[in-house]
Design a protein that fits this description.
Radius of gyration of chain B: 25 Å
Low-confidence stretches of chain B: 498-507
Number of strands of chain B: 20
Strand order of the largest sheet of chain A: 1-2
Largest interface: A-B, 31 and 38 residues
Largest sheet of chain B: 6 strands, mixed
Structural class of chain B: alpha/beta
Mean pLDDT of chain B: 87
Strand content of chain B: 15-25%
Number of helices of chain A: 14
Structural class of chain A: mainly alpha
Oligomer: heterodimer
Distance between the termini of chain B: 41 Å
CATH class of chain A: Mainly Alpha
Chain lengths: 319, 507
């Protein structure tokens, strides 16, 4: 990214516009961090920053999946329900960390495939399909646990969420690997290109030979897998299995994807953008706590931010 | 003769430097029905838009009831008594017949709510008067295409109309439905309405019109009572433009090569007869016919985008499972009719649009290295003369002609054996047209088989080595070399046959 690409005669390119959005988001994050630090120096302490990052990790997984679904003109309301269901079932079934993760990923993929099938092959709108999945999973989960989930968390499992390697939290390394893989998939593979082109114009994608239905199914499967992973990481972080693990993540993930530049009309979104937006959202929550403001304020800020982001992106796309 | 109810006086309209209509004189009298004839792009729809106030004339004026009028909007002309039934329906499926007819003019109760009783009563009275047999309360979604059209006509005539303009009203109707429509038109005419009837089907014009006005290239070329015309004389007035040097020369004496594309017993729709033909290497074969004659449906079926039974063979090899993806692999590539609907990715860059079929072309089947699409697009830009500063710009920033060049270049990246082009020069300026023709002829010379659909007769005549004229979903006739003339195509395409199947529109 050179300065001339940003402001020179090539400033109208699609890439330059995306780079400007990333820059704006980075600028915004720096501004709110600077203001908070000025008000309370405690914000910038290593312990607090590490807290922010650890809290951001589970949401980060979900947001990446959510963005991929949004790129193909979808929406995944079932992510939070997948998080809790995967956590409850896979931990309940076994206490070997490897098996837990394997079962979790398979389960997430399966649920995502069902969502994708409903949307791509049965023509159900993504909103309704994933809403239904969310509710059904809730029922399955409660039936399985009888309201009181059990299962013990193996030490190795807890280490994945709270441990360190050379001082870097394992959860963040895991997210980093997933983020790099997702970024590579989206930007440097034919598959990723087809996802974005499909979101831009599904009919044209079909006419240029894209396997349109499989694209949609695969996007929902990725979202399911990442939600499952997020559920396990979050449970490891919190330390207890809960029927409501990840509650609220469905809407937070949509908010972060939109603030990060994914367009609900499809075809647009980047991993760096949505991760920055995730960091913005988690920081705001932390800031409210640090500054001793009321928790309710956090919701007002979050909502306002979505509207602000939408307004900025709308104005740009209209130009 | 009495005064005309609606008239155009020296009416001209320009869009920028393009003069679309030049000094049009046109009259409709009460109790008469005037046919408005002309090729696609002759200026018929522009004239209708001027008559109804959607456009404003550059010079000249519209006269209504002997007075000069400058409509502020189509609504003003509608209120004055000019009713239009457009080719595309504006009915709302989720509303009843009555609600559609009186949309925006519903009778109200004293409380300001819709008076349902009065609504139904008024609708029944109107339908009765027009001789249309429809239940006022039925849902428009449940109606046939023909009945929807009746709803459109009733809606147009809900207030006292003096003139009714019908734009290609029979394009989507079966023969029986057309009969019924004609009966209604005749009755309306007898009651004193002036009718403007736009159609390509000459038989219909001779059956129900009293006068004819023919427009060609924005000028009236012929005008008079229908009794003074024959099929041939109407066609002669419509066609006959100079080919000029817009088209590259055809290799008339060359032997055609091996068959590249063979279509065997392809059934596009159950009610239609199977289609059989072939396209040989080095040939440009044209599919001519009226809008709605089934050309696009046939092309989409060959490409595998629409389901159809029958066989498609490439170089003698049958394609097993037909889908766009498999066709592309086998070497059939298609340019679709509407760029914006299913051709362009409007939010994506020129480079990505160009590379969309095979993003990793020449490097890897699954990966797209950084800058690969851009590098390829730069080469393409030079080769096809696409005017754009940077291939990273969104394709929406390009003119129609340049967008079309990018789409054609996209097809050629995969070295097609067979190229199917649906309206290859739609919305493209003359300069770009000429370049596209040259490219296509060059590709054919190199041994490609090309199947081109066009609604512009001059394009079919100037470009194609062989032409199939389609009518009602069938290949009605085949024309070769010297026999390919606008007159010959038109006389087949516009003829009425006993097998009037009423194929869906947008063909």
């Amino acid at each position: 990214m050179t300065m001339s690409a940003l402001f020179g005669k090539n400033s109208g390119t699609v890439r330059a516009q995306q780079n400007r959005e990333l820059l704006m988001l980075t600028g915004f994050l720096i501004v709110i961090w600077a203001i908070t630090t000025a008000l309370s120096p405690r914000f910038l302490s290593p312990a607090n920053l590490s807290d922010i990052l650890l809290q951001a990790a589970p949401l980060g997984f979900v947001v990446i999946g959510q963005m991929i679904v949004i790129i193909v003109r979808g929406l995944d309301l079932s992510v939070a329900s997948i998080m809790a269901t995967v956590a409850v079932l896979s931990i309940g079934l076994n206490d070997n960390t490897g098996v837990i993760f394997a079962v979790g990923i398979l389960l997430g993929a399966l649920i995502g495939a069902i969502n994708g099938y409903l949307v791509a092959y049965r023509g159900v709108t993504p909103f309704l399909a994933t809403l239904a999945t969310m509710i059904v999973l809730q029922g399955v989960r409660f039936a399985y646990t009888g309201g009181a989930p059990g299962g013990t968390l193996p030490d190795a499992f807890r280490w994945l969420a709270t441990g360190n390697i050379y001082g870097i939290p394992v959860a963040l390394i895991l997210l980093g690997v997933v983020a790099v893989a997702a970024h590579w998939l989206l930007e440097y593979t034919v598959y990723g290109r087809r996802l974005k082109l499909y979101g831009d114009n599904p009919d044209a994608a079909y006419m240029t030979g894209a396997p349109t239905r499989l694209l949609v199914v695969s996007a929902f499967m990725i979202s399911g897998i990442l939600a499952g992973l997020a559920g396990l990481v979050l449970v490891g972080y919190v330390g207890i299995v809960d029927n409501w693990t990840g509650r609220g993540y469905e809407l937070d993930s949509i908010a972060a994807a939109v603030i990060g530049g994914a367009a609900l009309s499809g075809g647009k979104g980047s991993v760096p953008g949505v991760l920055l937006a995730t960091l913005v959202l988690v920081s705001l929550f932390n800031i409210v706590v640090i500054l001793g403001l009321s928790i309710e304020l956090q919701l007002v800020i979050k909502g306002s931010l979505i509207v602000l982001a939408a307004a900025v992106y709308m104005r740009r796309s209209r130009r | 003769m009495s005064e005309p109810v609606l008239a155009a006086r020296a009416l001209s309209k320009s869009f920028g430097p393009n003069e679309v209509l030049k000094g049009i004189e046109f009259e409709v009298h009460s109790g008469a029905s005037v046919a408005l004839c002309g090729e696609n792009g002759a200026g018929k729809s522009t004239l209708i838009k001027l008559l109804t106030g959607l456009y404003h004339p550059t010079s000249g004026h519209v006269e209504f009831n002997g007075k000069q009028e400058d409509w502020s909007s189509p609504r003003a002309s509608l209120e004055a008594g000019i009713a239009v039934v457009h080719q595309e329906f504006s009915t709302i499926g989720a509303l009843s017949v009555a609600e559609n007819i009186f949309l925006d003019a519903e009778p109200l109760t004293r409380l300001g709510l819709i008076d349902r009783k009065a609504l139904v009563a008024q609708t029944e009275a109107l339908l009765e008067k027009l001789g249309i047999h429809l239940a006022a309360r039925s849902l428009v979604d449940d109606l046939s295409v023909a009945d929807k059209q009746m709803v459109e006509i009733a809606k147009a005539l809900r207030s006292d109309a003096k003139v009714l303009i019908l734009d290609e009203p029979t394009a989507v109707l079966s023969q029986n439905e057309t009969r019924h429509l004609f009966k209604i038109i005749t009755e309306l005419r007898a009651s004193g309405l002036g009718i403007v009837y736009v159609s390509h089907r000459l038989d219909e014009i001779f059956e129900i019109c009293t006068d004819i006005t023919v427009i060609k290239d924005g000028v009236v070329t012929s005008q008079g009572p229908v009794s003074g015309y024959t099929h041939d004389s109407v066609i002669a007035a419509m066609v006959g433009r100079e080919l000029g040097n817009l088209f590259p020369e055809k290799p008339l004496d060359r032997e055609p090569g091996e068959p590249m594309l063979e279509i065997k017993d392809l059934v596009v729709e159950d009610t239609l007869p199977p289609v059989n033909f072939e396209v040989r290497a080095g040939e440009i074969v044209g599919l001519a016919g009226l809008v709605g004659s089934g050309r696009t449906e046939l092309a989409l079926a060959i490409y595998g985008a629409n389901t159809a039974s029958g066989k498609v063979l490439i170089e003698g090899e049958p394609l097993d499972y037909r889908s766009p993806s498999n066709s592309i692999d086998a070497g059939i590539l298609m340019l679709t009719e509407s760029r914006k609907d299913d051709g362009l990715f409007l939010n994506s860059s020129v480079a990505r649009n160009f590379a969309a079929t095979t993003p990793g072309h020449g490097v890897h089947p699954a990966r797209v290295p950084i800058g690969h699409e851009e590098a390829r697009a730069k080469v393409m830009k030079e080769r096809f003369g696409v005017v754009v500063d940077n291939v990273g710009l969104p394709i929406s920033a390009l003119s129609g002609g340049n967008q079309q060049k990018v789409l054609i270049a996209r097809l050629l990246e995969n070295r097609p054996k067979v190229l199917i082009l649906d309206e290859p020069t739609r919305g493209v300026d003359v300069g770009a047209k000429s370049e596209i023709y040259k490219t296509l002829r060059h590709l054919a010379d190199e041994g490609m088989a090309i199947l081109a659909i066009s609604s512009e007769l001059i394009e079919i005549v100037g470009l194609c080595d062989r032409v199939f004229v389609m009518r009602d979903g069938e290949l009605a006739t085949e024309l070769t070399s010297q026999d390919i003339t606008e007159e010959a195509i038109m006389s087949v395409a516009a003829a009425e046959t006993p097998t009037h199947h009423g194929v869906a529109s947008n063909g």
